[in-house]
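pasting for ref. prot 1 ->
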Amino acid sequence: MRFLIDTHCWLWAVRTPDRLSRKAIAMIESADHKVVLSVVSTLEIAIKVSIGKLQLPEPADDFVYSQMAVLSMTSLPVYLTHSLRVSELPLHHRDPFDRLLVAQSQIERMPLMTADEAIAEYDIDIIWAGRGKAPRRKPSPSRRIRPPWPRSPIRARN
């Protein structure tokens, strides 16, 4: 299974894996799963490093590339369909990076691994990565998500 990983979960996986649930660690390490890191997350990391909110053991570009290689992760670019979907999302979360990850999860039809309760309110498949109990999710009237138009280039190749 392919899944997106939230920025904080990726940082925990590469720096403090004990903050993740056993299930999350197993999925990240499993050859049966393909972990996808969004360019949205790399932008968030770069911004936080540049303003001093995040310190890494090496320059951000070296760190991200090397850790992605260690964990055999792939990246997901941001397409117009992703960014425009954000305008249709309810305001469960105000963080623009997280809202764009939600939009990517919807359009690419990939679950999102997170430990953020606000993200869990969206109508997407969540892989709960927190050490505690997963938040209760409201029943969704419809799991159908309108397909992106035009189709995302990632989906078109599959």
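and prot 2 ->
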Amino acid sequence: MNAQNQKALSTLKSEIEDFTNEDINFSGRTLVVELIDDALKITDENLPEFPVFLSTSSDLMVVWTVLMSRDQVPKELHGEIAEILLNANSVTGLSNFSIDEGNYVLSGELSASSPIEIIFTEIDELMSNTVTGLQIFVEVLNKNK
């Protein structure tokens, strides 16, 4: 990672920590923020299995979480889950479901110059939509047992 991105992520880490320590309650989340490799890892203490990652470039910020490996879903259900997730994209504000590197992923993008309030809203919304995505998997997998 270049020095400019490293500095931007370090600054953003501090801003997120400061923002979440204020008397502002965003969905009652307690977040742990770590700088790992070329991204921030943001973990909701109530949903530690599904951390949100944030990476940045000169003009774009991407946030994402891995919901499940495609290998964990029976092959005969791949089409059904893909269709449900594509339809769910229309109701998951600021986030989109996709398949990336063999994983079902939920992600969002925003300008690298976004104010901290907007960045936190994106992170918060992605965490909320993660629960929606997990519910979809549970429903489809339980229905097809």
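The chain has one domain: 3-143.
Helices lie at 3-21, 78-88, 116-143.
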